Amino acid sequence: MAAGESYPDELSYHPEHDWARFEGDEAVLGVTWYAQDSLGELVHYEPPDEGTSVAKDESYGEVESVKAVSDLISPLSGEVVEVNQKVVDAPETVNDDPYGEGWLIRIRMTNPAEREQLLDAAAYRKLLEEG
Amino acid sequence: MSYLSLTDADREAMLSAIGVGSIEELFRDVPEGVRLRRELELPPALSEAELQRHLGELAARNVDDDVCFLGAGIYDHHVPAVVDAILQRGELLTAYTPYQPEMSQGVLQAIFEYQTAICELTGMDVSNASGYDGTTVAADACYVAKHATGRLRIVVTEATNPQVRQVVKTYAPGFGLEVVEIPHEDGVTDPDRVREAAGDAAAVLFQHPNFFGCLEPAVELAAAANDSGALPVAHVDLVSLGVLEPPGAYGCALAIGEGQSAGNAMSYGGPHYGFLASREDLVRRLPGRIVGETVDVEGERGYVLALQTREQHIRREKATSNITTNQTLLALAGLVHLSLLGPQGLRELGETCLALAAYAKTRLVDAGLELAFPEQHTFKEFAVRTGRDAREALKAARADGIYAGYPLGRDYPGLGDALLVAVTERRTVAEIDRLAEALGS
Amino acid sequence: MKLIFEKSQPGRRGLAVPKPDLPVPELPPEHRRSAPPRLPEVAEPEVLRHFTELSTRNFGIDTGFYPLGSCTMKYNPRINERLVGLPGFAGLHPLVEDDAAQGALELEWDLQEILRELTGLDAVSLQPAAGSQGELTGLMLFHAYFDDRGEGDVRRKVVIPDTAHGTNPASVTMAGYELTPVKTDARGNIDLDDLRGKVDGGTAGLMLTNPSTLGLFDENIEEIASTFHGAGALMYYDGANLNAVCGISRPGDMGFDVVHFNLHKTFSQPHGGGGPGGGPIAVRASLEPYLPVPVVARKGSTFRLDYDRPKTIGRVRAFSGPFGVFVRAYAFMRSYGPALREMSEVAVLNANYLLARLRDAYDVPFDRLCMHEFVLSARSLKREHGITAFDVAKRLMDYGFHPPTVYFPLVVPEALMIEPTETEAKETLDAFVEAMLAIVREASESPELLRGAPHDRPVRRLDEVRAAREPVLRHRFDVTDAAPRESVGATQDDEREIA
Q: Deepest in the core among B80, B176, B353, C473, taking most CB within 10 A?
């Protein structure tokens, strides 16, 4: 019962189909509707450990469907402060609610200026149309 | 050519449908510079009757009728007739890998049953569908251990089969692994020596019973590995696991081995099958196919390839292995054999081997030979000192129609006079008496 | 259908074991098995019946058409099974002294000579157990070759096209190399512009299947070879598609330095539900010193295993290799003799015939003649009717065919990779075409038939998501509700409606 296609305006987006929501000096990260639709029903989430570092444009973990594996690309650099255990236990949460319950990690940003380089919802939608 | 169905009329019709005038035109994209413009220089074609004659002559030039006391990793066990019958079922023999599960429930369920049998025998939680043989699964285990621990050293006992160690050493450089060997002492391995070396090891690999047929201090070896944070990997004999405690009972992370003793003819070395089983927590790192249970849209139980995201066709350069084709049919043979035996039969098979091997030891000692490792308990194999170059002893025994064993000198210094003698349930008291006579003289 | 474990009853036995009148030595208590393994307790007739029933729930080449692309599902000659069972082969221990194995060693030698002729290369190792192992062995040879020339530290990269079979990149990683991908152009050849900047003194070599997984022969192979050789790099040939070119073009003449064969594809070793296979390699003379050990050597009319190989990469498998596979491959080759080229000609004819008859109904990504296999796309069916390659594959089962390979190669969306092989009759090919065309009609007229397919197999569509989410990878003895609803006697097929 996956969600309908949407790209909320209040989020920022990375071309590798990841989103970020800013909360002070922290950011919550996840994958977009397009990502979960391409992969199909998710069956496994391999998260990073809390306390480890993530780097912009680098992989921080993996999600798997039955037939595919996808690296999770971080839109920002930072330190992992929380992993969403709900998705570890029930990866399909990402398919049902990719922007809400399906968030993947929360980080403390080490280089907040990186947010300028992300796309807004309109630019991300355009990227999908062209791609 | 009787394997081809197309008639001349068929070919004409097909070329016409394609829109070309000849078969040669179908190859027009092949550059002339790489075309072979002569006939292949190959030996002449043989009809089926001629094939049978020619291959029959080749087979007759092999000496397979000496009484076989040769082991060293491959054993002359009885292969039941039902195994042959099942392996010749064309639906199994000629099927491909079960990527389309609705077409392949036979193979998938058989593999699921095989995985269950291997787990039961080894005491482990999960098994794959087979590896190539008993040597390559050791390399597989090292790869698993590297990724599970992040460490780059493998400790292996010298009393492990030499070919297993050779293959591990061939794979190690590409894996970025260093291999350290622990010498045997009186035919077995000292756990303290292992503990010294295992400090930053990814795995400790030992064979049990070992290459000399001796029972290792397996519990202590596994503990030495676990205490150091290394994965204990036991290389075991399926036929022994009706009488010997399995690796899962003494703390091993992986259990591996050569499956040939269960269900496969010796066949000059193959094809056979390697088995690999592990603790639950290592399942996502396992190489090879694994079959899982599920249901169909009507709720009927069925089987599918599971956790395929580990494998090369999905994960590609990050796969747990490049393995694709494995040894399914041979593993299926093993499953059939084990199903016929059942737990009672497997135990009796082990006991028969123990009894006959013990009898052989006694008769050989009576004939004036010395056991190489008299203090050690053994299973179905043991090393005996012949009092001369073991190859000479072998030659003399062959003249009497006995293949007395494997000369250990080529693999172990100081054992040039020793033969490794294997005794399976196919050997009789009379044959053992002949062995003692042949070697005693 | 029940598992054999579910048919177990305490006290049953399927095989008696010889019990000599001798005492059984006691094992020390720490070694003695405490809890018996829960192997099934079943008598012999029920064991035979169980596995026979399993076989009826399976589809092999013996059952019907099996057009899996890049798998070469050709007829497995039954004489080969008889030959493998000859006592002089089946009963021969691999560690007997060479003088006791002259027939086996001569067979290996003769097989090697045939493989040399088919490739135009100089030396062979039969040891690798399967194509993947052949690939890994070949890459280890690359390492040895460059290490010997003092270039091992700089040559770290292997180039692989985006159409490559997944084993190629996996082998690259296992061999400790880095992957350099290269694109495919609009004609289905390696994109030479993309290639140009990617081959230099840091390149160890190329891994390529030719024809590719698209079923297309790379028209620029000579230029590609000189690009790599010009940079001092090596060329590796993945022999998965050799069925297209035996006697037509030799990989050595194409410029390849190392070739692996898939004896279970090109040379009729039965696939056995997933194996065994055989992956021997042939190499140019410059790589011969590094071959796995032992090597089969000949002196006059005597053969032996030579272990004196100071530059060998080592052993990759036990003994000289999977001997039973050699017997079958050798017998297959001897049944053709020099006319082996006909095998490839008919394989290519059969594939082009299917392509010609299906190209209007399906999308064809490349406008060329194919070799022994070709790729169609179901993307129009998806766009117009929501029917995918997956649905087409499942519906073909109802027509009595094994589906082709789907969703590979990755460069073609909704891919269907079809390889008929040379052993199929024209009537079979025509019946397959009719089924494929019927499916296109059904896609627009009754798509629910496709989405619900298969209707006529022992099981319906299986839930692979559930298998991945809650893996059950062995029988759970303690879970009593695991047994299926059992229909007594006939298989469950009788209860299904045939659509």
A: B353
Same-domain check for residues B330 and B314? yes
Burial annotation B381-396 (CB, 10 A radius, 16+ → b, else e): bbbbbbeeebbebbeb
Residue A43 near chain C (CB below 8 Å): yes
- Catalogue the E-assigned strands of C378-459: 405-406, 415-418
Q: Hey, is the C-beta of C465 within 8 angstroms of any chain A C-beta? A: yes
Asked if the C-beta of A69 comes within 8 angstroms of chain C's C-beta atoms, the answer is no
- Complex ipTM, two decimals? 0.97
How far does the CA of residue C445 sit from the closest CA of chain B (Å)? 23
Looking at every residue in chain C, the average pLDDT score rounds to 94
Amino acid making up residue B199: G
Asked if the peptide bond before residue B80 counts as cis, ω within 30 degrees of 0, the response is no
CB of B235 closer than 8 Å to CB of B205: yes
**pLDDT greater than 70 at residue B291:** yes
| Count of domains for chain B | 3
In this structure, the answer to whether residues B145 and B232 fall within a common structural domain is: yes
Q: Is CATH 1.25.40.10 what the domain over A12-121 is classified as, yes or no?
A: no
Residues B293 and B353 in one domain: no
CA atoms B84, C276, B307, B89: torsion sign:
negative
Domain containing residue B352: 67-78+343-440
Residues of C in contact with A65 (CB under 8 A): 465, 468
pLDDT tens sequence across C29-60:
999 999 999 999 999 999 999 999 999 999 99
Residue B68, amino acid: C
Mean pLDDT along residues B14-38: 97
Tens of pLDDT along A73-129? 999 999 999 999 999 999 999 999 999 999 999 999 999 999 999 999 999 999 998
Cα–Cα distance, B327 to B97 (Å, whole number): 11
Q: Is the pLDDT of residue A2 over 90?
A: no
State residue B441's pLDDT score: 65
Could you give the CA distance from residue C88 to residue B267 in angstroms, rounded to a whole number?
9
C308 touches chain A (CB under 8 A): no
Best of C414, C463, C465 to substitute, by most chain A Cβ atoms within 10 angstroms, is C465
Q: Are residues B296 and B386 in the same domain?
A: no
Q: Is B265 on the interface with C (CB under 8 A)?
A: yes
Taking CA atoms, C375 is separated from B28, C400, C431, in Å, by 19, 21, 19
**Residue type for C81, please?**
E
Q: What is the mean pLDDT of residues B411-417?
A: 97
Domain ranges of chain C: 81-339
Rounded to whole angstroms, the Cα distance separating B423 from B405 reads 10
Task: Provide mean pLDDT across the span C323-335.
Answer: 98
The pLDDT of B129-144, averaged and rounded, is 97
Contacts of C499 in chain B (CB under 8 A): none
Query: Does the distance separating the beta carbons of C334 and B54 come in below 8 Å?
Result: yes
Same domain, B233 and B116: yes
CA B430 to the chain's CA centroid:
30
Residues C128-178 have pLDDT tens digits of 999 999 999 999 999 999 999 999 999 999 999 999 998 999 999 889 999
Domain C81-339 has CATH 3.40.640.10: yes
Q: What is the mean pLDDT of residues C352-362?
A: 97
CA distance A36 to A29: 14
| Residue C326: CB atoms within 10 Å | 29
